Amino acid sequence: MPEDAPNPDRPPRPWRLTAALALAALAAALCFRVLGPSDLNANQDQSKTIAFTLDIVLNGNWALPSDGMGHLSRKPPFVNWLAVPPVAAGWTSELALKSPAILSGVVTMGATIAGAGLLFRRLDRPGADPGDVALAHHAPAAAVAAGAVWLACPSSVKHIYFMRPDILLAACMTIGWIAATALVTGPTPRRPRLLAAVFWTSTGLAALAKGPMALILPAYLLLAGTLITDHPSKVTWSARLKRTARAGWWWGIPLMLAIPGAWLYGAWVRHPMHVEDVLLGSAVKGRIADDGFAAGWSKKLYALTRGVPGLLFERYMVWTVPALIALLTRPSRAIRSHPTAPASVWLLIVLLVNVLTAGRAGSYLMPAYPAASCLAVYALARIIAGATATRMPAAPALITAAALALTV
Fold this sequence. Notes:
By secondary structure, the protein is mainly α. It is built from 21 helices and no strands.
């Protein structure tokens, strides 16, 4: 058989049409969301964050900006730094002031598409069932559908519009999650040092965006490198630790700490008491101690165990159901070997950390939505395709069209 002849043992890859349909539906969703009626103007609580940006531009307080009332920032000013160039250039419209959130939304959506494509391509593996193989052959279109599902999430649209650091945190952590997944799961990457540099840099930037939630990334890297493998019973622990060592911990941890550490030192030079009492005190320790754990640790933990998944249902809407279907069916039965395992592990660890720390702050669930979108598309595509996967070519476009309907 000539080398360029089609292989009769492999199904065709008609993903270009489905990708085009998914992109068309996504464009329509964006058009209707931007030009149609919206409730985004109902919440205008962004004045303090914008005031911090203006303080940097007008007074040069880069390390520790203050608002119009003289109150110092309680969070790292990374999102404000990103807004400085357009504002300093004289572009003072609402779009300019909120440009970091908009840019972060675009980056998060692109990272969601890239991460979904990485996971879905891995579905074509020895011993895979026809449904997984068919989805792998439509990975580009399915990845676009995952991006559409993420955009259809009400919390995503809300934080893209708001000038707050939550969407920036999600963008940095999504990039870190994908880099870690490519680095320590699946086959050996071509450029492990580049992936490691991206991982540690994004982790440091996530800390600079909104503090210690970034530590989820090193925890995920360690868990993914030691737990997720194609053949759990055949891979020794020494091999797993060797795979985890690709991350270059000895130079990565100092790089990760140096990024927020440089800002923290600058803030401490300007106002030591604010750094010690607020930034490292109430803003960090208070997330556990001040929320009632000291008075009733077990009752508070029980309440959060019920409340945080409830926040996921509320903020992620109907997409939570197919994500849980994927989490509780095939990926859970093969949590350490199925190609969607990185998304399952990431979703679970973000939920667990939120149970222990975040409490009622649903915005801290933002980093979980890209992985949940991958799981939701996986479950919906398998359901739509059927047992024989004959309807798989239409699945990505149908899912994206559903995202259009729910977004509008």
